[in-house]
Task: structure prediction
Amino acid sequence: MSNLDPEVEADDAPGAGGGTAQAVLEYVVRHIVDDPDAIRVEVEERRRGIELHLNVAPEDMGKVIGRRGRVVQAMRTVVRAAGARDGVEVNVSIDD
Result:
């Protein structure tokens, strides 16, 4: 997909900075947890892409991680795919 407006800079382009990946992460987590208002996603820019730090309510931690970490691994896969679509390498970490 090409950018037809030469006035739009790369930082303003859709998906720049992992916006799509962050939106996908928030959407998925919002539908898993009991307290969606407690969700916080912080974006940290790194050399090789971005890292999304996910914070949820303590009682929702088990739901987000899942048995043997399967839920969080699936979320990481989907979020990485969303980032790759925008050309951004994305990593997801869950913070206490």
Notes: The longest strand covers residues 40-46.
